TrEMBL record:
This is Serine hydrolase domain-containing protein. PANTHER family: ESTERASE C25G4.2-LIKE, OVARIAN CANCER GENE-2 PROTEIN-RELATED. It comes from the Eukaryota. Residues 5-213 form the Serine hydrolase domain.
C-alpha cells in the first residue's frame, strides 16, 4: 500500500526560546491532531541577545529571528531572516502550512516588550502576505493554511502596505486568549485574512488546551482544508479530544508563574 503523503508544516517559535520549546508547548495538544502532519520546528538564526525567562525551566540554547527597536517599528536583520526562511522552505519543503506562536510573557525593563514578542505568528503571516503579493517564495508552491497563536501584524507601514495590502486568501485559524494582552493585535491580524476561523479561549498569552467546542471547530476547519479541491493530495486528520496532560503543560505553567 502506498504510504499516505503528510502535509509539511513549518512551525516558528517566539522570543528567545527555540524550536524544541515550541514543540514541547504544542505537545499539550492530543497527538492525533498533528499525526498526519510533518511538523518542522527550526531555531531562529541568531543566538538570544539577552536573558530568556525559560532559563531553568527549559534547557538552552535560545534563539532570536531578528532584532527591533522598542516601538517594534524598526527592524534589524529582518530581511536576512526572511531570506533565510524562504531558502529553508524551498530546500526543505514544500510546506503546505505555517504555524506560529507568540512567546509567553517574560519580565523585562524594556518599555514596549509586550509589543516585541509576536515573532512566530507574525513572521508566518508576513511570509504568506508577501508570497500572495509575489514578493517572496515565487519558487515555492502557495502556502495553503496557517495556524496563528497570539499573533499580530508588523507596525512598519512599508511592510503593512505590502503584506496586508489585500485580504490574505488562505485558510487560517487564530487562537485568541481573553486574558492575552495581545488580544486586540491578534484580532487585527485575523481581520487581515479572508474568512478566518477564530478560536477563543479564557487563558492569557499561551498555547491553550482545547476544550470540546474548540476541538469541534478545529476538526471542521481541518476537514474543509481536506475537502478543498485546490489542496490536491493534502491530507489533514480529524481532531480527537483528550484529557491527557504532558510535560509541556507543566513547563508552560512554570513559565506563566515566572511571568506573573
Amino acid at each position: 500500500m502506498e504510504q499516505e503523503k503528510k502535509a509539511k508544516v513549518l512551525c516558528l517559535h517566539g522570543f528567545r526560546t527555540s524550536g524544541s520549546f515550541l514543540k514541547k508547548q504544542i505537545s499539550k495538544w492530543h497527538p492525533s491532531i498533528f499525526q498526519q502532519f510533518d511538523m518542522v520546528f527550526p531555531d531562529g538564526i541568531f543566538p538570544a541577545g539577552g536573558k530568556s525567562d525559560i532559563e531553568g525551566i527549559f534547557p538552552p540554547p535560545y534563539f532570536e529571528w531578528f532584532q527591533f527597536n522598542k516601538e517594534f517599528t524598526d527592524y534589524t536583520n529582518l530581511d536576512e531572516c526572511i531570506s533565510y526562511l524562504c531558502d529553508y522552505m524551498v530546500k526543505n519543503g514544500p510546506f503546505e502550512g505555517l504555524l506560529g506562536f507568540s512567546q509567553v510573557k517574560m519580565k523585562t525593563n524594556e518599555p514596549s516588550f509586550t509589543e516585541q514578542q509576536r515573532w512566530g505568528a507574525t513572521l508566518s503571516a508576513l511570509l504568506i502576505g508577501y508570497q500572495a503579493q509575489g514578493k517572496v517564495l515565487t519558487d515555492h508552491p502557495p502556502i495553503k493554511f496557517m495556524v496563528s497563536i497570539s499573533g499580530s501584524k508588523f507596525r512598519d507601514p512599508s511592510i503593512c502596505d505590502v503584506a496586508y495590502k489585500d485580504s490574505i486568501k488562505v485558510k487560517s485559524v487564530h487562537f485568541i486568549g481573553e486574558k492575552d494582552w495581545l488580544k486586540v493585535p491578534s484580532e487585527e491580524l485575523a481581520s487581515a485574512f479572508d474568512d478566518p476561523l477564530i478560536i477563543r479561549h479564557p487563558q492569557g498569552h499561551t498555547v491553550p488546551r482545547l476544550d470540546d467546542a474548540s476541538v469541534k471547530q478545529l476538526s471542521e476547519w481541518s476537514s474543509r482544508i481536506l475537502e478543498d479541491p485546490k489542496n490536491g493530495d493534502l491530507h489533514v486528520p480529524k481532531v480527537l479530544d483528550s484529557e491527557e496532560s504532558s510535560g509541556a503543560e507543566l513547563a508552560e505553567n512554570l513559565v506563566e508563574k515566572v511571568a506573573a
